[in-house]
């Protein structure tokens, strides 16, 4: 009994420290960080984001996923953009390989800013600002972006495998993944609402459709049967590597609360989506989002600010990369 109590105390202490680190990191960032050194950042980024969205609205979902996958590994320091000649970087890990979108667009924004403010704006700050502007451009909320992040020096495929959520993660695992970064169950559910926009490759849902729990031919019984049948048409079992794409929710080109309505109807695409209705606390947050869309928008904005402060490098830590794909030295 004593050991159990001690363990809970340790967990609480670790959670408190992580949350404190997030708050401390946020305090080191500033909305006016580039006011003197690169005031052009806002029109340059906004103009390019408008072009990207006009060409393909779904790129907003790509930017969101890119920021998530960056911040959940080593913090928000653009390590997800580093390339490795031996394919050992974060972008080479199975959760990212072949599916990260927005990398080339971030490189283009960086090149444009290097023309007007050479060596000033970090790739980490670019990811954060581009994501905010892209979400707002497709009808989603906007939020305050704080600046001053510097870019990391290390990118590891192994760390990405260990830290990124998978489409099959159950609720307790998701809570653990978010909690160790100082994010709450509210953040978990609200940020999962990013799946209101965009698409996924079929490979990430094939297990639920044809091999649930490793049993050939079994479909996840928690899925709405009509929904499962539609997915099977879009993702046939004989499809090589599940290369087709499917919408993340029923209104995948619109940033709204349809994702949460879909969850309540057992039409979540991933197991990690559907599992959110399995807990009373998360279920209450889902119901609030459905009944009060404006509250979801506010909460999503607040959670994006918190996520954007995870593990940031400031001051003399890291560097400001001249090219987002490689370190300045080596």
From TrEMBL:
Classification lineage: Eukaryota, Viridiplantae, Streptophyta, Embryophyta, Marchantiophyta
Extent of the signal sequence: 1-27
Plant heme peroxidase family profile domain boundaries: 28-328
Binding residues annotated for Ca(2+) 1, in chain numbering: 70, 73, 75, 79, 90
Residue pairs linked by disulfide bridges in the UniProt entry: 38-117, 71-76, 123-324, 202-235
Name of protein: Peroxidase
Keyword Transmembrane in annotation: no
Binding site for Ca(2+) 2: 196, 249, 256
